[in-house]
Amino acid sequence: MKSVFFLVMTAFLFMSCTQETASIKINVSFSESVSEESLDGRLLLMLSTNDKNEPRFQINSGLNTQHVYGMNVDELAAGTSATFDESIFGYPTESLSGLPPGEYYVQALLHTYETFNLSTGHKVKLPMDNGEGQQWNRSPGNLYSVPVKVMIDPKKNSEIDIVMDQKIPEIKPAEDTEWIKHVKVKSEKLSEFWGRDIYLGANVLLPKGFDEHPEAKYPLMIFHGHFPADFSGFRTTPPDPELEPDYSERFKMKGYNIIQQQEAYDFYQRWISEEFPRFLIIEIQHPTPYYDDSYAVNSANQGPYGDAITYELIPAIEEQFRGQGESWSRFLYGGSTGGWEALAVQVMYPDFYNGCFAACPDPIDFRAYCLTNLYEDKNAYYYNSEHRKMEVPARRDYLGNVSNTLRSVNHLELVLGDKSRSGQQWDIWEATYSPQGEDGYPERIWDKYTGEINRDIANYWKENYDLRYIMERDWDKVGEKLRGKIHIYCGDMDNYYLNNAVYLMEDFLESTTDPYYEGEVAYGDRAEHCWNGDPENPNSITRLRYNSMYVPKIIKRIEESAPKGADLTSWRYK
After folding, report:
1. Do the beta carbons of residue 376 and residue 366 sit within 8 Å?
2. Who has the most CB within 10 Å: 120, 168, 224, 553?
3. How many other β-carbons are positioned within 10 Å of the β-carbon of residue 281?
4. Residue-range domains of the chain with CATH
5. Tens-of-pLDDT digits for all 574 residues of the chain?
């Protein structure tokens, strides 16, 4: 019996080993109608199980994401195919062989790269922003295909050809109005670093009576945050009565688009009222090849954006629009990315600005880099355990329900672009905070696939960008300069666990006595991202009131800190 069983099993294994393995091949090319030149970039293949939207608009880090696979291409010529097979890494299913059999809507997109000859001597290939704020699925010049419906069964051999014959068109720049002006300034500092002309931009909101009061010089409010195509939250007419109410999944609210228009119109009414002080407000445009903004600080990989904004852009705006041009008159504010930027810029340029209002800031203490301690943890994706493998969460709601993990969101980024080129959140932190590698790209804080942390890189981050550590280390030098200027707000159920770093920052600030920081740290009870200091209204409303909610505190700060002889009257007309 044993010999028969042995012969049967041997025959079965032989047949299994010699049987041809099924394979999936999806060949992607582009036609000469969209480009006659050979192109570099990140080639993305997307597969969706529904036709609610194009697959390129259904890729995200949430529970409703569709499938995406990515590879680099160099000098890909028209008519030449790049092939996706089971070996190409994907998200959320790592290999095409793991896809459930069924019908899929398939689409390809080439996120085009350009070559930069950096002043450091490195040559790198990166996606230039083209006016959209570094969004791979709608960046002008990117090539894509029309979605096609196909049947895929990983257990059967199949070969599919996809041709990209569409190109995303250019974006029409925003036009000036009576109230809003658009400025672009060539940065000599950034142009030297990148080896080509680099411009900084700003959307400028003018105060009432700007033309009628040529003698007035204005304080400046600087809003930091993600790329603003135009000045947001300002509308001179009531809500459109024909507007179809939408549904906000984030706030579980119908008609949120109407609420947004109403809030924008209400702000306009406050802005032109006799009681509202006359300010200049600007929203800065500083997208980089790594993200929709630079994080507003000097960086080994992105160049001297901090100096360029502070010493080139801000003075140019103040000169053109009659700003006071004095440190007592400049204030920083923003939320999330903008919250980190507002605090970082105030800390790194303490003499140039007179206060920051940082709401729900990105991690300001890397012992709480969301849920990772960069200085003690060995792995970012998994909790330390001898016998269990438990993933670290990345996002929750106010009840604690988890919708994503750190490993998952980083794997999505790895598909969208290697070498920190995804244009997403964790990669921009890396591009901003890390030293430059030998290949010219950012050094990895951790292995993007496994999550293993590089302690040497973590120490570099600590010395250069851990805001709590820097403030504590240098308080004897900057404490007096920052006294009364630090205001931080965060919900205690922030979706991305950003409140944990705020707690650590508060511990330091409240323990300082020489001098005491004389600022403010406040929390919103059960408030999610991005709570900004108003305990009376929900996030859905307060996030629309950034441009007016800190004004009373700014006025109070000016009255308390402006030097003798400062112009406190020319801009206080009715």
Report:
1. no
2. 224
3. 26
4. 23-167 (2.60.40), 180-363+470-492+544-561 (3.40.50), 367-463 (no CATH)
5. 444 434 434 443 444 443 446 689 999 999 999 999 999 999 999 999 999 999 999 999 999 999 999 999 999 999 999 999 999 999 999 999 999 999 999 999 999 999 999 999 999 999 999 999 999 999 999 999 999 999 999 888 999 999 999 999 999 999 999 999 999 999 999 999 999 999 999 999 999 999 999 999 999 999 999 999 999 999 999 999 999 999 998 888 899 999 999 999 999 999 999 999 999 999 999 999 999 999 999 999 999 999 999 999 999 999 999 999 999 999 999 999 999 999 999 999 999 999 999 999 999 999 999 999 999 999 999 999 989 999 999 999 999 999 999 999 999 999 999 999 999 999 999 999 999 999 999 999 999 999 999 999 999 999 999 999 999 999 999 999 999 999 999 999 999 999 999 999 999 999 987 899 999 999 999 999 989 999 999 989 999 999 999 999 999 999 999 999 999 999 999 8
Q: What's the CA dihedral at 10, 15, 18, 19 to 10 degrees?
A: -150
Judging by beta carbons within 10 Å of its beta carbon (0-12, 13-18, 19+), is residue 87 exposed, middle or buried?
exposed
Helix pair 499-511, 467-482: axis angle to 10 deg: 40
CA 373 to CA 368: how far, in whole Å? 5
| pTM for the whole structure | 0.93
